[in-house]
């Protein structure tokens, strides 16, 4: 049976994925499914760089604002919702376009990964959170040498989850199954200096638009500082600023550095997938379906 086609537009933060995807969607009669692990949360708009209604230009966007920020939203939950939306879009005889920079979300769809149902162990996570990435890596290496070969060795969050699963199941099971879709993956890439300028400019613009006020409002509505720090990047440093632990200048400097570090990790993740075709978003793309 012929697998349905999907288009994936991916890349690091600030490479222009949202705008590029809207243009492609209008050309190819597509609908967009977000693949961003923080844009799923309601009310976290400026802090996550969420696309606005005006910027959508009439193109339907899905999997934005589907979860409450106080609760954790897993990749397994994302895959369930994304697969459902893909089926709905295909039924409408439109092209599903997956757009985002969360590598694990994209991999879950493209490779049809089935995630083990192991509930979070908060006590264990609290203990492991105190360890360095190297120490966490050494733990998973002893528990599950096979998983140690594939896990991101410098990503504490991924390492902690791998340890959590291995302690319950004895090992992290193989996740892949037969792909459901015929996926074409387009990666957007910009020179580092241009990307750094874009990141800084976008950060300052979002602060001017009210990113700090948005964070304060979210906290007043029940989003704890601890949870904000768990959400990472913008929300981590906004929480530190609101708690008066850092100045506004320090917040901007530290956040800019953290975003760039995240971009580097995104690049490492996507570089592993040789199926991705990389292009500069400023150049015209000849793409037909």
From TrEMBL:
Cofactor(s) needed by this chain: Mg(2+)
Superkingdom field: Bacteria
Keywords: ATP-binding, Magnesium, Nucleotide-binding, Transferase, tRNA processing
Site (Interaction with substrate tRNA): 102, 125
Swiss-Prot/TrEMBL GO biological process terms: tRNA modification
InterPro entries: Dimethylallyltransferase (IPR039657), IPT (IPR018022), P-loop_NTPase (IPR027417)
EC number(s) reported in the record: 2.5.1.75
Residues covered by region (Interaction with substrate tRNA): 36-39
Catalytic activity: adenosine(37) in tRNA + dimethylallyl diphosphate = N(6)-dimethylallyladenosine(37) in tRNA + diphosphate
Keyword hit for Cell cycle: no
Residue sites binding ATP per the record: 11-18
PANTHER family to which the protein is assigned, alphabetical: TRNA DIMETHYLALLYLTRANSFERASE (PTHR11088)
Record's subunit section: Monomer.
Family stated for the protein in its record: Belongs to the IPP transferase family.
Protein name: tRNA dimethylallyltransferase
């Amino acid at each position: 049976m012929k697998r349905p086609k999907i288009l994936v537009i991916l890349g690091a933060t600030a490479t222009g994925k949202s705008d590029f995807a809207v243009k492609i969607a209008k050309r190819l009669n597509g609908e967009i499914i977000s693949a961003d692990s923080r844009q799923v949360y309601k009310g976290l708009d400026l802090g996550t760089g969420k696309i606005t209604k005006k910027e959508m230009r009439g193109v339907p966007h899905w999997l934005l604002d589907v979860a409450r920020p106080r609760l954790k939203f897993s990749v397994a939950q994302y895959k369930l919702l994304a697969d459902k939306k893909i089926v709905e879009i295909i039924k409408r005889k439109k092209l599903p376009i997956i757009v985002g920079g969360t590598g694990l979300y994209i991999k879950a769809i493209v490779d049809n990964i089935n995630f083990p149902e192991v509930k979070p162990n908060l006590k264990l996570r609290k203990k492991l959170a105190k360890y360095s990435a190297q120490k966490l890596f050494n733990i998973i290496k002893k528990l599950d040498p096979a998983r140690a070969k594939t896990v991101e060795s410098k990503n504490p969050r991924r390492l902690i989850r791998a340890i959590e699963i291995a302690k319950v199941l004895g090992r992290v099971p193989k996740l892949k199954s037969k792909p459901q879709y015929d996926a074409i993956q387009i990666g957007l890439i910009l020179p580092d200096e241009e990307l750094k300028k874009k990141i800084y400019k976008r950060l300052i613009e979002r602060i001017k638009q009210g990113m700090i006020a948005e964070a304060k409002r979210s906290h007043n509505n029940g989003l704890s500082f601890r949870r904000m720090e768990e959400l990472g990047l913008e929300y981590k440093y906004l929480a530190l600023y609101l708690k008066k632990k850092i100045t506004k200048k320090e917040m901007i400097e530290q956040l800019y550095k953290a975003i760039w570090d995240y971009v580097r990790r995104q690049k490492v993740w996507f570089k592993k997938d040789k199926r991705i075709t990389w292009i500069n978003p400023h150049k015209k793309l000849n793409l037909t379906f």
